[in-house]
């Protein structure tokens, strides 16, 4: 089972958006049984809140199915439950490390590492108001991540996939 946790500041825009986009991709590729996909926040500001309405609208315009999301905060215990923690920017990485502690297995990464623009940062659309642009970035990141994972799955059915 491939276990991914996507992380952003509030868990109401980017991380939940990428969760739904990747889930849609794995569902359409009939890989859902191989994946556990979730999302979390580094802050406590939005805990319990649903996806932010403008982000939901952008995902719907992109034909991404939306689930019944409620924001939650990343927990130290999550480190043992997921293979990778994927953030969107430097602030996410900083706070993931604060919450999770040491990262001996190098599980903390950025989504855009899996694209041809690995240095690209996905800015928080709550501030920029660029929800459609953010959705496009998340889609590119998910396509790259899934391609990376499919190659690993086909190369090694028996070992862990990162």
Automatic annotation (TrEMBL):
Lineage of producing organism: Bacteria, Bacillati, Bacillota, Clostridia, Lachnospirales
Family matches, as Pfam families: LMWPc
The protein's Enzyme Commission number: 3.1.3.48
Name of the protein described by the UniProt record: protein-tyrosine-phosphatase
Example of a GO MF term: protein tyrosine phosphatase activity
Xref: InterPro entries: LMW_PTPase, Ptyr_pPase, Ptyr_pPase_sf
Substrates-to-products reaction catalysed: O-phospho-L-tyrosyl-[protein] + H2O = L-tyrosyl-[protein] + phosphate
Phosphotyrosine protein phosphatase I domain boundaries: 2-148
Database matches in SMART domains: LMWPc
């Amino acid at each position: 089972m491939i276990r991914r946790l996507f992380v952003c500041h509030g868990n109401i825009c980017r991380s939940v958006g990428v969760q739904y986009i990747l889930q849609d991709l794995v569902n359409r590729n009939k890989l859902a049984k191989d994946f556990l996909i979730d999302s979390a926040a580094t802050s406590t500001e939005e805990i319990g809140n649903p996806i932010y309405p403008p982000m939901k609208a952008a995902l719907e315009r992109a034909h991404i199915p939306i689930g019944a999301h409620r924001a939650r905060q990343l927990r130290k215990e999550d480190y043992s439950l997921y293979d990778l923690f994927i953030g969107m920017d430097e602030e996410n990485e900083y706070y993931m490390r604060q919450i999770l502690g040491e990262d001996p297995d190098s599980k903390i990464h950025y989504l855009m590492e899996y694209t041809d623009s690995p240095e690209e940062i996905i800015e928080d659309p709550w501030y920029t108001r660029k929800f459609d642009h953010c959705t496009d970035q998340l889609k590119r990141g998910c396509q790259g991540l899934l391609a990376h994972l499919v190659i690993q799955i086909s190369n090694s059915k028996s070992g862990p996939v990162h």
